[in-house]
Amino acid sequence: MKKFSENLKSARKKIGLSQKQLADKLNVATSTIGSWENNLRTPKIHTFILVAKALDVSCDFLLGLQQIKK
Q: Which of 2, 14, 44, 45 is buried deepest, with most CB atoms within 10 A?
C-alpha cells in the first residue's frame, strides 16, 4: 500500500506534525508511524480511521482514491 505511506507522510507534513506528535495523538509508538510511512506496516482499520481524523483528511485520500484533501 505504497500510496497510503506517501499520503500519510504528505498529510502529516502539510499540517506541521512530527512523527512523534502524530504518534502521541494516536497513542502509538513513534516507530509505528515510521513503519507506516516506510511502507513496512499498515494500521488496523480502527486506527486507520483515527489517523484520517487526526490529519483532517478522508480515508479515501489516505488510500489514494481521492486526490484532494477534504
A: 14
